[in-house]
Design goal:
This protein has 481 residues and is of the alpha/beta class. It has 14 helices and 19 strands. It binds adenosine-5'-diphosphate.
């Protein structure tokens, strides 16, 4: 029997080390032992925490895998002392971030796959670690199993963001309630786990590949993260983790909001990001063919590639992203349209069958877009269909500055933007303008500037390119139009 002394603070338990295969344990610093309620206990100096009781483990023993035994510098049959974990003095959980680095990579090393793999790894770690309030120490190795392969991660750096927190020169970090994941796409071998949500969200897009600004998208960072988190992360999880979390794959997203706010822009980038190629974009009114019966065929054709892949490749099929612009045109509330032929009904049915019917496709993500959510057939928005609803609203003032910056970037880089142009001021004057309208303002201001330089009398005269300047007055004039 384990020897457990009476005093609360100085509980010391002695246990005998037994071995266990690595695959049993998700993480190296969770050690199974024969006692329950030991999550605040650790092997001193090793950060090995004691986890749940495992029935198969004998009384008075602690089961450690090879990596753990090395880490704790013990061998099988050694006796180890376990004490209550005492957090370092200035241990402020909310200040820490961790960076993990892969030391062994998966076999598929295509960038995107690897990146997603890293995301999954982070999620697995996050979910598990979070439950146990795990402490990490720099240099510590963490093993986990994913699709039958054991991966080893090392904790590369514990970023102490505000205060210097060190214990004996060892940097530590801990995942807690405030911890959020940051995915760094610029280097697929690195992941940061950090605690500041806003900072985290912003940070992702400061990284090269997901820099929305460089993709020409302004003011939609939060929405982008939302779509990513709600629609895609579950797809990337191993099925068993998904089952444990009780979540089903999201098959459809609806982006709704006023026209010109960047829905198409964003859906297209997301599609590209997910499978590296241009997504299929169709437009409601176009699909709605003049000829009765053709529309259903059009809808069927849309899914043909995905169906083919699912049939031939099964679970290995790539994700097919299908973007449906103006989806309200074909999925109007049934019975509400002026259409009396029942065509709309059968198209909606066709679409629903593809999404969740007998022929349900798991390799499809449908991104529907509409300016008129109120017009949509309710049936389309039920769970399992276009269930993730994301509103893309008009940009606020800060958002308008971002969008104006994006659309004046080129002229600024090429010195066509006069120094008096104050984007902040323009943003203040363009309340309720959409991204598309702001783009229009920039175009119009540019045309005023060009107009000054063109010699209308003699168009063959060369334009003095170097001196073209788009001024604040050009912008103000564009606003007055
Ligand atoms: P929606 O699909 O919401 O009607 P679009 O994505 O088609 O709008 O936007 C039309 C154009 O307006 C885009 O191609 C882009 O040039 C500009 N635009 C709209 N929203 C934004 C934005 N948030 N950031 C940058 N440009 C934008």
């Amino acid at each position: 029997m384990a020897d457990r002394s009476a005093s609360q603070s100085s509980v010391v338990i002695t246990m005998k080390v037994t071995t266990t295969p690595a695959a049993h344990l998700a993480f190296t610093n969770l050690a199974y032992c024969s006692l329950s309620d030991l999550s605040e206990f650790a092997i001193p100096g090793s950060d090995l925490f004691l986890a749940n009781v495992a029935d198969s483990i004998e009384d008075g023993t602690i089961a450690l895998n090879a990596v753990q035994r090395r880490h704790a510098r013990v061998s099988a049959d050694d006796m180890v002392t376990i004490t209550r974990f005492v957090p370092p003095k200035k241990f402020d959980l909310t200040l820490l971030a961790l960076e993990l680095e892969f030391v062994k990579k998966g076999t598929k090393n295509e960038q995107v796959t690897l990146f997603f793999f890293v995301v999954v790894a982070a999620l697995v770690i996050f979910e598990t670690m979070h439950a146990y309030m795990q402490v990490f120490t720099v240099g510590q190795r963490v093993t986990f199993e994913f699709h039958g392969t054991n991966y080893i991660l090392t904790v590369n750096r514990a970023v102490v963001e505000i205060d210097e927190i060190q214990t004996n020169g060892i940097e530590r970090g801990m995942i807690c309630n405030d911890t959020y994941l940051v995915f760094e796409a610029s280097n697929a071998s690195g992941i940061k786990i950090t605690n500041q949500r806003e900072a985290a969200t912003r940070k992702i897009f400061k990284e090269k590949e997901f820099d929305l600004e460089s993709l020409g998208i302004g003011a939609l960072n939060a929405e982008f993260v939302d779509i990513f988190r709600r629609a895609f992360l579950y797809r990337l999880m191993p099925p068993q983790l998904r089952n444990r979390l009780g979540s089903k794959i999201v098959k459809g997203v609806l982006l709704y909001g006023p026209p010109g706010t960047g829905k198409t822009l964003m859906a297209r980038q997301i599609g590209k990001m997910l499978n590296g190629k241009e997504p299929k974009i169709v437009n409601g009114p176009e699909v709605l063919s003049k000829f009765v019966g053709e529309t259903e065929k059009n809808v069927r054709d849309l899914f043909a590639d995905a169906e083919n892949d699912q049939r031939t490749l099964g679970d290995d099929s790539d994700l097919h992203v299908i973007i449906f612009d103006e989806i309200d045109a074909i999925c109007k509330s049934r019975g509400s349209s002026s259409d009396s032929t029942g065509v709309h009904d059968s198209i909606v049915n066709q679409l629903l069958t593809k999404i969740d019917g007998v022929e349900a496709l798991n390799n499809v993500l449908l991104i529907g877009m509409t300016n008129r959510k109120d017009m949509l057939d309710e049936a389309l928005l039920r769970p399992g269909r276009l269930e993730v609803l994301i509103e893309i609203g008009l940009p606020d003032e800060a958002g308008r500055v971002e969008i104006l910056q994006i659309h004046t970037k080129m002229m600024k880089e090429n010195s066509f933007l006069a120094p008096d142009v104050n984007l902040q001021e323009l943003a203040a004057q363009t309340k309720n303008y959409s991204g598309a309208e702001l783009e229009g303002v920039v175009k119009s201001a540019t045309s005023y500037a060009l107009n000054r330089h063109l010699n209308i009398e003699d168009l063959s005269k060369p334009v003095d390119e170097e001196n073209i300047k788009v001024t604040m007055e050009d912008f103000l004039q564009a606003l007055r139009e």
